[in-house]
Amino acid sequence: MTDVVHLQDVRKTFRVYRRGGGGLPRLRRERTTVAAVDGVSLDIERAEMVGYVGPNGAGKSTTVKMLTGILAPSSGDVRVLGLEPMRQRVELAKRIGVVFGQRTQLWWDLPLSDSFELLRHIYRISLDRYRTNLETFTGVLDLAPFLATPVRQLSLGQRMRGDLAAALLHDPEILFLDEPTIGLDVIAKARIREFLASVNAERGTTVLLTTHDMDDIERLCKRMLVIDHGRVIYDGDLDTIRKRFGGESVLVVDLVDPGPPISVDGVRVERVDGPRQWLRFRRDKISAADLVAEVASRVQLKDLAISDPDIEDVVRRIYEEGV
Amino acid sequence: MASRAAIYGRLAGSRLRAQYQYRFSFVLQIVGAFALSFLDFIEVLVIFHHLPALGGWSLGEVAFLYGSSYVVFRFADMTMGALDRLPVLIRMGTLDQVLTRPLGSLWQVLTTDIGVRHVGGMVQGGIVFWFALTRVHIHWTALRVAVFVSMLIGGAVIFCAIWVATNAIAFWTMDAREVANSVTYGGNYLTNYPLHIFGVWLRRLLAYVIPLAFVNYFPSLYVLDKRSPIGSPVLRFVSPLVAAGAVVAAGAIWKTAVRHYRSSGS
Hints:
The complex is a heterodimer.
Chain A: E1 3-19, E2 29-45, E3 49-53, H1 60-67, E4 75-80, H2 89-93, E5 96-100, H3 112-122, H4 127-140, H5 156-168, E6 174-178, H6 186-203, E7 206-211, H7 214-220, E8 223-228, E9 231-237, H8 238-245, E10 249-255, E11 268-273, E12 276-281, H9 288-298, E13 301-307, H10 311-321
Parallel strand pairs in A: 3-7, 3-8, 5-6, 6-7
Antiparallel strand pairs in A: 1-2, 1-4, 8-9, 10-12, 10-13, 11-12
Chain B: H1 2-20, H2 23-50, H3 59-80, H4 86-92, H5 95-99, H6 105-110, H7 118-135, H8 142-167, H9 170-173, H10 177-191, H11 200-209, H12 217-223, H13 239-259
C-alpha cells in the first residue's frame, strides 16, 4: 500500500443539546445528532501535498483530528501509515507532525529552545539528527533571534515558525497542518509557504493542510479537496476546477476623458465611475492582450489593471452550485 | 520504561521551574497550606475535648488515622492536582496537543501542574502522625511493619486512582469538579475517622464501591490491634491488592474517557 492516508466512509457525529421550548425551558433540552464528517473517503499517497478546503464548520478540522488520533471516528475506517490512529495513537505520534494554527504545541512558559529540547527527549531524537535538523530549521525559518524568548512573548508569526520547526524535529513522514497561515501577514505567509514547499520537495514529507486561504493552495498544492457539510465535493487539481468554474477576469481602465461604456463582444461593462470603467471578460473567450488592444484602439487610455478570478470565488461557486 | 519516567520527570521539572519563577507566591502557598491544614486537626481535638473516645478509639488512635490519611491524601493532591484543570483543558481543546505526542495522555496532563503547595499539608499530616505514634503503643513485628508500610503506599495509590477515575467524568460532562471533589476531599474527611462510626450505607459505599476503607482503616485495625464491628479480618491485609485493582480500574476508565474527547471547534 503506497497510500499513507486512507479514509473509507468515515463519519463523525456529535450529539448536540439545544434548549428546547415548552414548560421548563431551562431544563428541557432537545438532543440532535450532527454529522461533522459525513462519509468521507480519500487516499493520499506518499510525498503528496494536499490542500483541504472548506467553509467554517465543513468538517476540515474534525477530519484532521481523526487522522491524528485526537478524535475517535463514529464509523468508517481510518488508516494513517497503516495504523489505526485512535488505537495506536502513541505509535503514530512518533511518525507524524501536527501543527494547529490556532494554538501552539509549544510550552507556553518556556523559551523556544527549551521546548525543542523537551521534544528531543519526548520523541527520542538522536543528538546528531536533532542538531542537524535544528540547525537547518533555525537557518531557514530564521529562529535564532528568538530562540531564548519564552513562547508566550513571541509574535504570531514567530510562534508559527517555532511550531513548524517543533513539528518537524523528529522527521515525521506526514505533516498535518490545520490553518497554518491563519492571522499572519503577507510576508510571514510567504515565508511559511516557501518552507513547506521545501520540506515537501527535499524531505519527501507528505503534507495535508487545511486552509481558508486560497493562496496557500495555489502556491503549494497540486491536489485540492473541497469539503462541505462533512462531504468531499471536489477532489482534483486546481487547474481543472478553475477551468470548470473559471470565473471572469476584470480589466479596469482609466480613460483620459470620461466616455460612454465601451462595448466589446463577449465583454460586460460592470461599472462606470467617471473616467474609470470595469470590464468583465473570460480569458477562454478573449485574451487579455486582444481586449486591451481593442479597447486602446477606441479610446485613449491613461492606465489599466487586470485582476484574475480569485480561486476563492471559484470555490464559493462550488459551494453554491455543487460540482 | 525507565527512560519514560525520565521524560515525565523532565516535563515535571520544566513545569516546576516555570512555577518557581514566582518565588514569593511559591513559598507563601506552601506556608499557607501548612497553616490552614492545622484547622482540620483542631476539629479532631475539639471532639476529644468533649469525648474520651470516638467509637472506642482514643485520641492517639484517631490521630493515627488522621495523620496517615492526611499524608497520603496530600501526596495524591500534589501529584494528581493537575486534574482539577482537566475541564479547562477539555473545553479549550488544549488536550489536542497532549494527544498528538507519543506519550501517555494521563501522565502529560499530570505534569501540567505540580501542586507543590501540598507539601505544606503533608508536613502537617506528618506532624500529627508523629504525635499519634508517640501516644499509641504498637507491638512492632515484621508483619506489622509490612502492613504499616503497605498501608501508606497503598493508601496513596488508592487516592490517586480515585482522583483519576472521578475527574475523568469531565470528558462526558465538561465539568466534573464537584463530583470529583466530593469523593476526593470528602473521602479524605471520612478517612480521618474510624469507619464504623458512620452509618451502614455510607460504610458499604466507602468500603466496597469507593475503596476508601482500604486507605487506612482496615490496615490500621491490624497495626493498632483493634477489634472492629465490621469487615472480615482478612480485609486488614488486602490493601495492596485493592490498590492494584484501583489502578487497573482507573486506567480503564481514563482510556474510555479519552475516547469521548470532543475537542473544540477549529
